[in-house]
Amino acid sequence: MQDLFEPTDWVGIYEPKRVTSKFPNLTIGFTTRNGGVSTEPFHSLNVGLHVQDHQECIIQNRTYIAEQIGFPLSAWVTIEQVHGSHIQKLCIKDLYQENQTSHVPLYSACDGIYTNHRGVLLVTFYADCVPLYFYAPKHHLIGLAHSGWKGTAAQIGRKMIDTWMQEEGVLPKEVYVIIGPAIGSCCYTVDSKVQSAIANTLPPKWVEKIYRPIFDGKYAIDLKLTCYYQILECNIPENQIYQTNHCTSCLNEVYFSYRRDQGKTGRMMSFIGL
């Protein structure tokens, strides 16, 4: 069976085709490292402005993506990701602030964002952390959350769902969640402090499924699977949680990886829009 995230007709962009076939009004995907103009070590579709790549190359790469997916750069909404768990609802008036551009994060110290407005593209950036996509069709709500180990320990995925339930009147049965490409347990080891922080977010029946001891107090841990169980604990129907098996570290010809490349690497982006 093919993975959830499959290549598209657009070079350098993957999409969860089982999701887009079900919801054709959604524009949703994840970029790869291929098809852009950046040079090593950011070869070639780097979209992260906070690495040491040339800005003109990054903007050219972003422009290419915007043209392919049909959302102009003026419709992009980015946030300043800090490995926290703050979630922000997009206020449309903020898009029209003086000097506001798609290259400047709209909100600071923020790792989750959502909206019910059509015609905007929510965007977050990655090089191993877990991208979480959220959709509540009945309420026209879309959201993104950036979940590294700190975000996973803070249960940012669960926090997005709780926010929708409390602030937007959404029921768990109305929510769809997509777990995107991220580093897998095959390549991700952590110390006992991190292992404990993540394990403490789940009931005992799930804990042994998310990690395995390796050596000298080190553990291989599965952030994607942890996010899956955290979301399942929110009473989201199991058949409405979609997962990918893609490991950003293993698939070195497809994805950037902060850990594999020892920090000298580019960034991919997740995106969702109505």
Overall description:
The mean pLDDT is 95. By secondary structure, the protein is α+β, with helices and mostly antiparallel strands. The chain has helices at residues 17-22, 55-69, 149-153, 156-168, 192-199, 204-210, 223-232; strands at residues 5-7, 13-16, 27-31, 76-77, 87-89, 112-115, 121-126, 130-136, 141-147, 176-179, 189-190, 211-213, 219-221, 241-243, 268-273. The strands form three sheets. Strands 1-2-3-15-7-4 form a six-stranded mixed β-sheet. Strands 5-6-9-8-10-14 form a six-stranded mixed β-sheet. Strands 11-13-12 form a three-stranded antiparallel β-sheet. Helix content is 23%, strand content 23%. Helix 6 packs antiparallel against helix 7 (223-232). Strand 1 and strand 2 (13-16) form a beta hairpin. The chain contains seven helices and 15 strands.
Name the descriptors.
274 residues; alpha+beta; 6-stranded mixed beta sheet; 23% strand; globular
Structure annotation, total helices = 7
Proportion of residues in extended strands = 15-25%
Overall strand count: 15
Outline the low-pLDDT stretches. none
Largest sheet: 6 strands, mixed
Radius of gyration: 18 Å
Helix share bin: 10-25%
**SS-based class:** alpha+beta
CA-based shape: globular
Q: Distance between termini?
A: 28 Å
Strand and helix order: EEHEHEEEEEEHHEEHHEEHEE
- Largest beta sheet: strand ordering: 1-2-3-15-7-4
Give the averaged pLDDT, no decimals: 95
